[in-house]
Amino acid sequence: MSTWQNWAGLETATPVRVEHPADEAAVVALVRRAARTGARVKVVGSGHSFSAVAAPEDTLVRPDRLSGILAVDRAAGTVEVLAGTPLHVLGDDLARLGLSLSNLGDIDAQTLAGAISTGTHGTGGHGRGLAGLATQVVGLRLVTGDGTVLRATPDHHADVLDHARLGLGALGVLTAVTLAVEPAFRLSAVEEVVGWDTMLGGMAERLAAHDHVDTYWFPGTDRCLLRISDRVPAGGPDPSPVPSARERLVADELLAYGALGVATALTARVPRLAGPVNRVVGRLAGGRAYTDTSHRVLTSTRRVRFREMEHGVPMAAAAEALAAVRAIADRHRVGFPVEVRSAGAEDVPLSPAYGRETCYVAVHVHRSVDHAPYFAEVETALAALDGRPHWGKVHRRQAADLAPAYPRFADFLALRDRLDPQRMFANAYLRRVLGP
Ligand SMILES: Cc1cc2nc3c(=O)[nH]c(=O)nc-3n(C[C@H](O)[C@H](O)[C@H](O)COP(=O)(O)OP(=O)(O)OC[C@H]3O[C@@H](n4cnc5c(N)ncnc54)[C@H](O)[C@@H]3O)c2cc1C
């Protein structure tokens, strides 16, 4: 019997059977079979959710044979993609076509359907607005609880499109997703280490002026690493040399390990080391400048395993939220950075950025560290500021307190009743966050 485990190692499950459907017809067949026997079905992506959102109970469906681009419509600026396509494969395939997604998260190891289903997002300065991948979805194909295939577009089953682009795997099996794409573009990134007050004081101006702003604050210090990326005008010269893959990897890994945090914490305690340590920090992370294809600049490799929780709070509450998290992280002597990103107001019903400009605050610990006391305090503080949790990351929120946080929660539940009345796609996580 094969065991399923998520990337962080926090969740495991032993499904009764494992399926690898080769096409949509095979998905329909397995769903109909499960409907007859009353079995539950769970499609997994790449297992990169920290929460148990993807944990299978009876049948585990691996979408590894549902990968690749099905159709390109250059006039409409869309591509139809098989739902199990890993984002890194999609990024390379789109680049070969001279196309690109508008935005991505920190990594590209996830499958397309897995990523959109939990609200995976990157960071968007308000100049560029949207950060969530689901906002780029303009069509999808969904196999519902009785094996019906729904082709949802803005004109046909629009309500299904609206909700199933961030559907938590609760509404059916996505077999294909149509995405809005744009001509390939390059991003020029600059990284800089600044103090907390500079980070916070200049936040609004920075977001207004730039395409993507990503901030890492190192607990126990005053130091923040700002990563600002802007589009390079087509045909323009590279503002800086492209870094080697190895250079990127070393710097990204240092960031992931929290080594920069350790270094900067040292300078806080032994101020005479500040000069040499900051010089090393500056050389390794801050002070880097590079230009590359958009998906290579936006995403990094994360080989160090960690645990993560993230909430989106209204942008107006960002300063208060960050001050609260700073005090909690310092008290817990956390070694991993706190990541701060932003999104414009989105119209995806279950997106944490639904209806409001959002500041995302993500906290991390090494996978070997008990996250519970730190995450619980942060969650309480951010929930009090109207924070909404990332569905794919660790959190303890439940249906009763999530419903008031999402104005269209009841619509989602009504659609779930219609598309999956038998709860074929449910698991313990969905029963907690959506109800029975
Ligand atoms: C190192 C790391 C970095 C990350 N960085 C970011 C980031 O920058 N921004 C961010 O927002 N998140 C980030 N995440 C979280 C991650 O993007 C999400 O948890 C995402 O959902 C994982 O995708 P997956 O393919 O692994 O899907 P899984 O975690 O395996 O599944 C997620 C959900 O999708 C459903 N699903 C999968 N395929 C289908 C399908 N075909 N039809 C219907 N439902 C389906 C599953 O049932 C489940 O409900 C990160 C996670 C890790 C581990």
UniProtKB/TrEMBL annotation:
Alphabetical UniProt keywords: Oxidoreductase
Every FAD-binding PCMH-type domain range: 11-184
SUPFAM superfamilies with a match to the protein in the record: FAD-binding/transporter-associated domain-like
InterPro entries per record: ALO_C, FAD-bd_PCMH, FAD-bd_PCMH-like_sf, FAD-bd_PCMH_sub1, FAD-bd_PCMH_sub2, FAD_lactone_oxidase-like, Oxid_FAD_bind_N, Vanillyl_alc_oxidase_C-sub2
Entry superkingdom: Bacteria
PANTHER family, per database record: D-ARABINONO-1,4-LACTONE OXIDASE, L-GULONOLACTONE OXIDASE
This protein's name: D-arabinono-1,4-lactone oxidase
Organism: Nocardioides lentus
Organism taxonomic ancestry: Bacteria, Bacillati, Actinomycetota, Actinomycetes, Propionibacteriales
